[in-house]
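Attaching the record inline, Q. Sequence:
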Amino acid sequence: MYGGAVTNADEDISTNSIYLFQLSNNTINWENLKPGSIPNDGLWPKGREFHASTIINGISTSPTLVVIGGVDIRNQPVNECLLLNTNQYNWMKIPLPDSVTGRHHHTVSSFVVDPNHVFLIMVGGVVKTEQEDVGAGVMNWVNEPVTDPNITMVVELVFNDGQWSVGSVLDSFNIPLLYELILKERRKGLIGMNEYMTDKEKELQVINESLCHDLQVAITNNQSLQETLLALESEKWMLETQLLETKTLLTKRKRDQEDSPHSDNAKKLKTESVEEKQTMTDEKNEKLRATVAYNEVYLTEIEEEKKQVKEQYLS
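Structure, as predicted:
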């Protein structure tokens, strides 16, 4: 809190002190900061009352106190706008037209637009319009309520590179234009966002269709691999059965040859016939052995192919 009037004996005196209010552990603490009690750049405004003040929060700096207008100890208007950095307690003057600062008994509030922009909104108050003879040659200023177009004023402040600067200053007639401009910019932003969302939706739709296609291909490949695996299993089973039958037949023929009873005389009489049959039997046995060897090699190839199919299926 800044300034205001204090009573000294029977006289009201305008002050330029800063009052800090702190609430800690359900205890209220007030601290009075006077000129010289804190370090600053040397600027300390004169006392005033009937001014308006507000706090700017949310900007890329510490909270800033704004003081506009008011009257001094001689009841004269104080046409200035001051900003107080509440971190280092340095004052800064902001140049504004008299239509903004040349009033008292008014109100001011702040509206943060974004981290570097804020609008100050001033409403009402009174101004000194002319001097009037109150008798004995004494002339006093006459206070009149602020009238249009200055009843409501909007001031744009911009914070950039650690400094405040003034943007637009609008009166009651031009504020609707600012409102329309803000709405227009927001509509542009919404339209751009809708177009962006539409493009994103199209992009997501293409991605979704591509993923669905890839999924269908993967399902088809999976079914094909399963069918191939089943066919290999069936072929392997048939070959193993044939191989077992062939080995059994070879074993039986060998045993029959070893157990066949032949006398020496019979062998001599039937030498030619036996030799001929033996030759035929040997040829058949060789063919069977070749078949067994081929089937064993083929089974090995099937096992290898089956292994590769399983690896593809699992991957």
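Residues 265-270 have pLDDT under 50 and may be disordered. The chain is about 45% helix and 30% strand.

More tomorrow.
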